[in-house]
Fold this sequence. Notes:
The structure is a homodimer.
Chain A: H1 3-12, E1 16-17, H2 18-29, H3 37-49, E2 53-58, E3 64-68, H4 70-82, H5 92-98, H6 105-132, H7 139-171
Antiparallel strand pairs in A: 1-3, 2-3
Chain A binds a DNA duplex through helix 3.
Amino acid sequence: MSLRHALLGLLAQGPASGYDLMKLFEISLANVWPATQSQVYAELGRLAEAGLIKVSAEGPRGRKEYAIEEGGLAELRHWVTEVEPTAIRRSDMLLRVFFLGQVHREQARAFMRRRAEASGELHERLKSLQDIVARGDDDLSVYGRIAMEWGLRFSAMQREWAEWAENEIARGQEGRISS
Amino acid sequence: MSLRHALLGLLAQGPASGYDLMKLFEISLANVWPATQSQVYAELGRLAEAGLIKVSAEGPRGRKEYAIEEGGLAELRHWVTEVEPTAIRRSDMLLRVFFLGQVHREQARAFMRRRAEASGELHERLKSLQDIVARGDDDLSVYGRIAMEWGLRFSAMQREWAEWAENEIARGQEGRISS
DNA sequence: ACGGACATGTAATCGGTTACATGATTAC
DNA sequence: GTAATCATGTAACCGATTACATGTCCGT
């Protein structure tokens, strides 16, 4: 139930409407916790009902601005520091790796080559995003930079792994695998 | 809809019952695609109805052994080689990083220290698992090793990142962040 | 005889995705 | 006037989780 905490986290930086929050998701959290519009509005309703946030202002077009309450801040801090992050992570990429024995060895190598390529592209994309992102020493910059660094290291690691793997598969020589 | 392909992948290695498949999940795919018992039985029913697998034998206690069909193999191979793996990955760990500005700097450092620790433990756990896993040159060993290598590199990368991050936070000095 | 493993299923609930639906305000 | 943007909501569906429910076979 992390969408709830993503919303609390954004509201902790200041009041916002559902519409504002959607835009914030798109620019800041899109890569770590994507959310859809229907989801955001529904969860805001639940959060308000639970008393963790409240409608702080109403504007034109039925705009409702929400502000975080003390209970919401407490819940956010508790979740950040005391709830252990999820350990297991589904990966349909690694799932495919397990079944690479079902295709020709050359196809398996092409799979790895493509993975290396995609990771390289991600790495470049993040690097150019990094240049745009604020380089200040405020909280958001410090922690945003730390999250960004994870992405850079991850994409680099995955690219190197895929290249290593392509090579590893080649060592087994050509021909058909199984069947 | 990857559970479907996980099942096809396992059945591609040979016929099995729902019960067998559950055990296979636990030992081999638990870390990349966990599945529950109810899910497995339900999906087997759907796969059989779609003609991608069929009941190949019936045994005691209502045991139904499933075997993969040609259509199932084709679907599996198509999914492995031609369907692009999911790019975005949710991470409630990184989501927490974004909101670390909401807690004391010392708590943020403790968070990173704990992450480094957990990644180190994961790394060790995988290393000992590696020693147990078959070291042959058959398909499953080759590709199992490649997936394992990903885990080793990932956990190492994450540990190094967390240590770097803990340091990075320290550079901003002590005291309260925001609020 | 009995316990543990084998074996299959259903029901309720939840979080997430996609699509649909509607309307108000503002800038040009 | 009108198009873009602002703004909120509902409904159907899907995959995954948790809990419940039931019964059989095998080894000792």
